[in-house]
Amino acid sequence: MRISILTATYRCEDTIADCLASIAQQTHPDIEHLVIDGGSPDGTLRILEQHRTRISQLISERDDGLYDALNKGLALCTGEVVGVLHADDLYADARVLERIAHMFEDPSVMACYGDLLYVRRQDTDRVVRYWRAGEFAKAKLRRGWMPPHPAFFARRSLYQRFGGFDTGFRIAADYESLLRMLTSLEGRVAYLPEVLVRMRLGGTSNRSLGQIIRKSREDYRAIRRHRQGGIGTLLWKNLSKLGQFVGHPNPKNAAK
């Protein structure tokens, strides 16, 4: 089973080598890695070229942001299953994609997800938050629940049916895409109760107060578009994050 992994890059020379290494060490034998660079002016492209043999397809050109880049990857990928690994992030261990492929051996499984650790940017062994996703139920969407997008994998046929990322959302297109799929899809959404991804802090959505406000507005727009409630849903979505700061596992054991 081929798994396509999409990575959008721009000005990420400090982290992209770690991202590439975490994919290269995966034990699953059939991985298609597509990297879409936005024409980075720093050393990102040089690092990508140094690791060119690990990359199935590499595009470097100006784009309209993260979600436009990911849409380019969706249009080119050929895997039966698709996941996204951002340039700042790492898979938790070498067998993540092997376990994902095993889950999709069940033809009734249309999507699969696991847990995620937020880690320090300069020390990925320092855990700050533990996003324990829990089992899926459509009713939970009205309480602001969502799976961690970097730890979410879906059959490519779902993107073909529901479409890619809506670039009218500059920060929350991943949330809107998940709502679009999860409110309507038929088939199983499987939960793998293990840490799949280590995500560095400092992403676009929480970089400043202005970005946090903008993300909340976009989240609310997505909630209303898919009829999953209103302000109460948005409040629950944000309040649910508080529990991620306590009781997280020892980072040495988190991926076991």
Tell me the layout of helices and strands.
Elements: E1 3-9, H1 16-24, E2 31-37, H2 44-50, E3 57-60, H3 66-76, E4 81-84, E5 90-91, H4 96-103, E6 109-119, E7 127-131, E8 152-155, H5 156-162, H6 173-182, E9 188-200, H7 209-225, H8 231-239
Parallel strand pairs: 1-2, 1-4, 2-3, 6-9
Antiparallel strand pairs: 4-8, 5-9, 6-7, 6-8
CATH top level assignment: Alpha Beta
Low-pLDDT segments, ≥5 res = 251-256
CATH superfamily: Spore Coat Polysaccharide Biosynthesis Protein SpsA, Chain A
Major β-sheet profile: 9 strands, mixed
Shape: globular
CATH fold description? Spore Coat Polysaccharide Biosynthesis Protein SpsA, Chain A
**What value does the Rg take, in angstroms?**
17 Å
Order of helices and strands: EHEHEHEEHEEEHHEHH
**CATH architecture call:** Alpha-Beta Complex
Discrete helix count: 8
How far is the N terminus from the C terminus? 24 Å
Mean pLDDT: 93
Compact summary:
This protein is an alpha/beta fold.
